[in-house]
Every structure is written in C-alpha cells, then in structure tokens.
Design a protein that fits this description.
- The chain is mainly β.
- The chain has a single domain, classed as Jelly Rolls.
- The protein is 3% helix and 44% strand.
- It has 1 helix and 10 strands, in the order βββαβββββββ.
- The chain has a 5-stranded antiparallel β-sheet.
- Strand 6 and strand 7 form a beta hairpin.
- The model has no long low-confidence stretch (mean pLDDT 88).
- Keywords: Metal-binding.
- This is Cupin domain protein.
- Pfam families: Cupin_2.
C-alpha cells in the first residue's frame, strides 16, 4: 500500500496521474475494474470526471479529505464509502496532513440484479474446511 504513490498512470498526451494504479486486469476480474490511489496532502484528483456506463464505489482506506459530486462537497475519512452514478461529476481532494489512500471499484451500472445477490446466488457448500 505504501508504494501506490510511486505509480504513474498515463491518461493521454501530456496527462498523467501520480499515485494511481489499476488492478482489475492483474487479478483477472471479469465484471469490474478496481484501482488504488494515494493523494499527498493538498493534492486533488486533477479534474472532475464522469463515465458513460460505469458507476463507482470509492472506499477511503486512510487519511481524510473532501469528495465532490455534482457540486456537493462533503468530508471523507477512513471507512467512508461513496457510490457515484455514471453521470455524476466527481473529484477527491486530500485536505489532511497525511496521505489519503482510496480504493475505487468500477462496474457497469444497473447490471447487478437480485439473482446476483450473495443471498440468492445459489451459494453451494463444496466441502467443509479442514484446517
């Protein structure tokens, strides 16, 4: 986790994001993407953005800051979870004195149905654990 800040994500010509790394492909995820990002004190995510079809869950793992969605700004800290619809204009800023680290999970909006719920997905006991 302490090495996230060392990653640089290229976003296009002359645009990079310091401290962000995508991990979904690395773990073989097939229904979502996930990324980690660390912002140093005073740093923000660089720009407001939206998505075409993906909503996002932001989970603050460490630090404190402010989150902005559609002009509304509210405080966030360790344990805060934010869900943002695809068209929500979003950004994050570290307003604390330590690094702010978050996990972002991105997935197609409205794709998860009641049949996908962990309570109804037909969890099948394969075998008992034998530690």
């Amino acid at each position: 986790m302490s090495e996230i800040i060392e990653h640089v994500l290229p976003m296009g010509p002359n645009v990079t994001i310091q401290g962000k790394v995508f991990a979904g492909q690395a773990v073989g995820a097939t229904g979502s993407e996930l990324s980690f990002q660390t912002l140093v004190p005073g740093q923000d995510s660089g720009f407001l953005h939206t998505h075409k079809t993906h909503e996002e869950l932001y989970i603050i793992l460490k630090g404190e800051g402010q989150y902005q969605v559609d002009g509304e700004i509210f405080p966030v800290s360790e344990g805060t979870i934010i869900r943002v619809a695809p068209d929500g204009k979003r950004a994050l800023k570290n307003t604390g004195s330590e690094n702010l680290t978050m996990l972002c999970i991105q997935y197609k909006a409205n794709a998860f149905t009641e049949a996908d719920s962990p309570m109804t997905d037909g969890v099948i006991l394969q075998e008992e654990l034998k530690w």
